[in-house]
Write a structure and sequence with these properties.
Elements: E1 22-26, H1 32-44, E2 60-64, H2 75-78, E3 80-84, E4 91-95, H3 96-102, H4 104-113, H5 120-126, E5 129-131, E6 145-146
Parallel strand pairs: 1-2, 1-6, 2-5
Antiparallel strand pairs: 3-4
């Protein structure tokens, strides 16, 4: 029978112990899925050795140049975003091409939202993700570190 020492216990963070940083990601020329995967991973905190599944221990992410994100294959014409008004016959369809012109920030937010938990914790994590269509952002006071993907 082996006894586990205190040094080998899995750390479980409390809200007071969590240290958050902010990162800046340039989406220009990046593939949508690969970008969203990394953003979701950082928001969730899985890149940290102190990852705790029931705490919001991830970092803040600022994504710029969302209008210049790429997709592979025929997804520009074939990828469809659905929205329902909750009225009978209220289903709306929008292709990726139309969505990237109309609201480029929503494209990245939809991709990242699908990769986060579907509960209150996932919603709290999503508040730390800010997406901007162009080069400029208003979060200089967070002192974000540039992150290459």
């Amino acid at each position: 029978m082996s006894i586990i020492s205190k040094e080998h216990k899995t750390p479980s963070l409390r809200k007071e112990d969590i240290k958050k940083e902010w990162f800046l990601i340039d989406a220009k020329g990046k593939t949508l899925g690969r970008l969203a995967t990394e953003v979701a991973r950082r928001l969730r905190g899985k890149h940290k050795p102190t990852f705790t599944p029931n705490q919001d221990c991830g970092d803040g992410i600022i994504v710029i140049n969302a209008a210049e994100v790429n997709v592979t294959g025929n997804k520009r014409q074939d990828k469809i975003y659905y929205h329902h008004s909750r009225y009978p016959g209220g289903m709306k369809e929008t292709t990726f091409d139309v969505m990237i012109q109309k609201n480029p920030t929503k494209v990245i937010m939809e991709a990242v939202t699908g990769m986060l938990p579907k509960n209150r914790l996932g919603s709290a994590m999503l508040t730390h993700c800010r997406v901007f269509a162009g080069e400029k952002h208003n979060l200089e006071s967070q002192k974000p570190t540039k992150l290459e993907i």
